[in-house]
């Protein structure tokens, strides 16, 4: 972790969880700093991941978990036919569009976490082979899962960005602040 997550106010578990999720979001957002759309769409590793596709995937994944917690339909639900589009920008989409979309999702996540009576409140998991039958998870679990999910992909983003132009997470934090790193 190259940024410091401030300590929560005493007893502010919601604030602490939201701060850790936001720190991971920031790592992925920084990964596209200073890149053209073409650079961010390139695939510099043996896999099919690109930075812009990773950005879109993580934003849509957070939306999916948010809608499950809200028990509302996901307006961007992927099907087998559209699954791949969740990992790349399609016609008419830009990095800026995805960042604006993700900011909106992040705002909704914050609103939800501040509005639920308790982080112990639960919501049902969908039927899927990887979830237990009639499984439920808490809002606390949701936030910890978002830290895990976004953090995992932030690591992917670090590798992809460094493969593109050699910039490390430390350099990107400095760039975001208008500073230089190591020079």
State the order of secondary-structure elements, H for helix, E for strand: HHHHEEHH
The N- to C-terminal Cα distance equals 21 Å
How large a portion of the residues is in β-strands, by DSSP E? under 5%
Strand order of the largest sheet: 1-2
Structural class: mainly alpha
Provide the residue-averaged pLDDT. 93
The unreliable regions are none
Count of β-strands: 2
Principal-axis shape equals globular
Helix amount: 40-55%
What does this molecule look like?
- The model has no long low-confidence stretch (mean pLDDT 93).
- The chain has 183 residues and is mainly alpha-helical.
- Helix 1 runs antiparallel to helix 4 (95-115) and helix 3 (51-70) runs antiparallel to helix 5.
- It has helices spanning 13-30, 37-41, 51-70, 95-115, 139-165, 169-176, and strands at residues 122-124, 136-138.
- It has a two-stranded antiparallel ribbon.
- It has 6 helices and 2 strands.
Defining traits:
183 residues, mainly alpha, two-stranded antiparallel ribbon, 54% helix, globular
